Amino acid sequence: MARPVPQPEKDIGIWPSDDSGISVQITNYSEQSWMIKEWYSYYTKVGGDQQWQQYTLLPPHKGVKLPDGEVAGDQSIARSVRYNFVRDGFWPPWLDPGVAFKIVQVKNSDNEPERGFMVKASVRLVARNHLGLTESLEDGDLKKFYNDEKAWVPLIFPEVTTWVRPGSAPRVEIRPNATGGPAYHVQVDIG
User: Highest taxon of the source (predicted)?
Assistant: First the structure.
């Protein structure tokens, strides 16, 4: 079975004209719905002075909805959202601006425990950019996760992969566009 084609549903924030910032695109290939529930900012803000927004990614769907409401095609489409961040004020060279997200599986009932994972990205002005990923929500503290030096992965690998725990859950993969530079684009694939 072919993997669904990713289709961005929404851009939250505007990419800066000076081409320096962090862009995180999250795509859902799984059969569950996922919510980008919280974020943490370290010397960044949503681009274009827009507001942060939670966003729910539904499972992939068939076809494309045309403006007249008709659905065309039978190709499977994976839904995605892109968050664009810019520097918030002056970035001293010793501070590495970044963002972190808490992404949770949408529950079918209130009795289900919350499941999900956290991801983080940082633009390093004097070294390689950074990524981080957890396989669970741990204690759910995004600031603590962001500041945990042991939770950063060296960018000597083209991607970082884990499986959401506990229970049987989808694979999560994160891939950066490059290991350095001021225009940092990160792809997060669920499923």
Answer: Eukaryota
Q: What is 5-190's CATH number?
A: 2.60.270.20
Tokens of 167: 């229970």
Distance CA 27, CA 131 (A): 17
Residue ranges per structural domain of the chain: 5-190
Find the angle CA(120)-CA(123)-CA(126) to the nearest 5 degrees.
140
Cβ neighbours of residue 21 closer than 8 Å, sequence gap 6 or more? 15, 44, 47, 84, 85, 86, 87, 123, 182, 183, 184
